[in-house]
Amino acid sequence: MQNSVSLYASLLFLCSIGIISTNAQKEKTTEENLFITEPGKPDSGRINSLIKYGETKEETSRDEAIRIYERAARLAQSINYFLGAGRAYNYAGILYSDEGDFEKAIQFNEKAIFYYSKINYKSGLGSAYCNIGNVYKFRGENKEALGYYLQGSALLEETADSSRLTILYNNIGALFSSLKNNSKAIEYSQKALTIAEKTRSEGNIINACINLSKAYSNEKDTAKAIQVLLKSFPVANKLKDYKILNYLHNNLGVIYMHQKKINQSAYHLNRALECSHKYGNPYDISYTYFSMAVFYKMQKKWFQSEQFCKKTIKIADTLQLHDLLAKTYNVLSDIEEERGNYKKAYEYYIVFTNYNDSVNSKDQVELMHEMEAKYQSTAKDKSLSQKQLLIERSNAAIHNKNNLILFSISGIVIMVLLTLLIYFYNRSKRRLALQHIEALETDRELKILQAMMDGEERERGRIAGHLHDGIGGMISAIKMHLGVSKLENEALGKSEAYQQGLHLLEDMAKEVRKTAHNLMPEVLHKYGLEEAIRLHCRSTSNKTLEVHFQSYNLTKEWNSNAELIIYRIVQELVNNAVKHAACTEVLVDISQDEKSMTITVEDNGKGFTPSEQNSKDGMGLSNIRSKAVALEGKIELTSEPGTGTTVTIELPLQNLELT
Q1: Confidence (pLDDT) at 308
Q2: What are the Cα distances from residue 232, in Å, to 248, 257, 321?
Q3: Which of these, 167, 274, 148, lies nearest to 210 by C-alpha position?
Q4: Domain ranges, residue 615
Q5: Does 528 map to a domain?
Q6: Alpha helix ranges (H) inside 466-580
Q7: Of 346, 370, 390, which residue sits at a domain end?
Q8: Best CA proximity match to 645, nearest among 609, 591, 598
Q9: What is the mean pLDDT of residues 323-328?
Q10: pLDDT of res. 26
Q11: Residue 639: enclosing H or E segment and its boundaries?
């Protein structure tokens, strides 16, 4: 199975945007004005205006833009306006590629090639070939992608179309970089950079720098790779191009990951995830998920890594990204091997090898399909001839007999179908009834658990009030009387026993205040969950113990009951680490995504073996589990002797937010 070095290499998937688009200024018009104010048959001017209107819709509604381009293509075909038809199909193919619908992307770009060829429009032909090459590149079919790229470059070099040629050279450089042909990658990326700098095309300059960074990374020159990427950030931020920003952050995160600079890596990978979601390209999102999976795997956070692997597979399977699927199943295999689940690890490894083999032996598979298709065609023709001969020799008696058999079979099939329908209907009713009963039972248990926790918190509040107002007040009164006694008797105030008693009384007052605060934390109600946990971690730290706290993407919109439960969970986890782990450092990490909040508490203490877990699972951990269950959360505990303990809790947001 691949080690972390090979995973690092596979993560550096840098490629240029690879989308040919016009840079003409968009006209402020509407579709209605185009076809109401200018009645009559369509002409080339109106079709061009419609295409420009589609361009204005690309950023706000891709589906509407596609619909407009398709309408423009139909109108252009109706008047044999081949240039307009080619442009409309070309632009629609680009948007289908961005949406991840690769089959339609190829289909529409092939239509663009058909209409461009009728007028020998070489610039448009080069653009369409480049876009088809992009689709094959996204799908990991590098041989086909390179063929289309080279066809496009030959056409664009004849036209000296610097804008499109720069993008195409960037794409070829990215492809050679992914194939580890660094000399070719640098050659084409330098060509692209030279043209982009002459034309002052900021986006193309960034793409060329990205490809050069990939080549430097393949050469193990990470210093140059980082330098080139950092140089590109100011321009990318100026353009607000989230696709480019995704590439920059993702690859910087991977490089820092390889250098074991965890904080820098985490920052850039999280920014890459935000940018990929803002841009909305499923191809980019899937590769960013994969980077996050490898990031958590390198930190031995198996649960988080597994979740990102599953997200990657969901998208990659839809887009048929076999190369990415192979890499992702390889990561899952490594995770299960580290967990000791060797059977599951082997199953994932088999899936990995199947995808990997399909990527590496595609030509053989296509040849087999072609041979099979020819065989099936021959067999079908032979079977049809035999059936025709039998039909011609049949007589009326056999025909009637066949009809009788057909009616009998139809009746039997109908009866079987009705029986199956009744059976599945009854089984479905029973299953729904059982699910309803189970849901009621679960709800009853949760209500009992919630009532117990509410009672516990009320009792905590009562005891805290008694400590603060009762015992605390008595201690204050004692201190006041001792102060009066000191004034009345100076010798008593100077005695060592008096001073020692006064210090003990001060310590008692501090301990009472601390106990009252832990029982009912006022800071939680005043400043919110995040600040309360931060203050608790800070107050727990001392000369021999550092308790660190970090949070990502947290909101303050939680209901008070959920905040109190989360605070108690963190409080008990930290206390367990302090009491039992014999550790010097504790890390509390809380992060949030669209669907859940994840709480992770790690220590560098003595740890324990899985066989010792039952003995460790005492009242403290039991209370933590019950609180997590009250919020319908999941808890995972991992530990090894000498490496510390990690507790991860995942809570669904729907149970935390304000109602």
Answers
A1: 92
A2: 8, 20, 28
A3: 167
A4: 522-655
A5: yes
A6: 472-488, 490-494, 496-519, 522-527, 529-540, 560-580
A7: 390
A8: 609
A9: 88
A10: 34
A11: strand 634-640
Q: Are 110 and 124 in contact (CB under 8 A)?
A: no
Q: pLDDT averaged over the chain?
A: 78
> Whole-angstrom Cα distance, residue 475 to residue 480?
9
Residue 548 lies in a domain: yes
pLDDT of 86 > 90? The answer is: yes
Q: Give the C-alpha separation, 554 to 542, whole Å.
A: 27
Residue 563 belongs to some domain of the structure: yes
Tell me if 573 sits within 8 A of 647, measured CB to CB.
yes
Burial (CB count within 10 angstroms: exposed 0-12, middle 13-18, buried 19+), residue 157: middle
Cα 589 to chain centroid distance, Å, stands at 19
583 occurs within a structural domain: yes
pLDDT digits (tens, 9 = 90+) for 290-311: 999 999 999 999 999 999 999 9
CATH of residue 645's domain is 3.30.565.10
Model confidence pLDDT, tens digit, residues 70-81: 999 999 999 999
Alpha carbons within 13 A on the beta-carbon side of 331: 35
Mean pLDDT of 487-500: 70
- CA atoms 428, 431, 436, 442: torsion sign: negative
Structure tokens belonging to residue 257: 């990951």
In the predicted model, is pLDDT for residue 227 greater than 60? yes
